[in-house]
Amino acid sequence: MEFAATVLNGTNDSWPPAGDQEFFCAACWCAERRRVLRIFLLIFFGSVGTLARYAIGGLVQHRAGSSFPAGTLAVNLLGCFLLGGVGEYALQHLSIPPDWRIGITVGFFGAFTTFSSFAYESSRMLEDGDWMKMVLYVSISVVGGLLLALTGIHLADRI
Predict the structure, then answer these.
(1) Sequence-ordered list of residues with C-beta below 8 angstroms from that of 100, at least 6 positions apart, any chain
(2) Chain segment 38-73, per-residue pLDDT in tens
(3) Could you give the residue ranges of the DSSP H alpha helices within 65-130?
(4) What gap in Å lies between CA 105 and CA 116, rounded to an integer?
(5) pLDDT tens digits, one per residue of 66-108
(6) Cα 154 from Cα 149, distance rounded (Å)
């Protein structure tokens, strides 16, 4: 209790110096507030992305009425288009605050689809002229993803 009283009264000689305590506390408070906002935005946009994927994917699959994964394909292609547009707009105009960009891209599109991130990153490499890097990334992503999915399927069948 004595330590808390000396800090509150400004009679403590420890770091931070008495004049900097208000600044230090305000800086900590602002950083904590940004972390809480970022987590809230991730939760909010992630929930919206999940619900959107469920609704759109289900609607398309129901209308297609086949065993082909039309709902997943539609969601992934739509996600690629939307993430490309949102990502490019945010990069060019910077009108979306960083915490909101993370909430939208990682939260919404991370829950809506991860394929959109793959396509966007590959497109950026292509536009930057990183052909070899893009080919390597696409090859490892597609072939590796398929092999790991098959491995998971076969392991699950054996359990």
Answers:
(1) 41
(2) 999 999 999 999 999 999 999 999 999 987 788 988
(3) 70-93, 98-102, 110-112, 115-127
(4) 10
(5) 877 889 889 989 998 888 887 777 767 667 888 998 998 899 9
(6) 9
Amino acid at 37: L
| Amino acid making up residue 9 | N
Contact present, 119 and 84 (Cβ < 8 Å): yes
Paired tokens of 8 = 């509150």
CA 43 – CA 6 distance, rounded (Å): 40
SS percent in the chain: helix, strand, coil, step 5 = 85, 0, 15
Type of residue found at 39: I
Residue spans per domain, the chain:
2-113
**Contact between 134 and 126 (Cβ < 8 Å):** yes
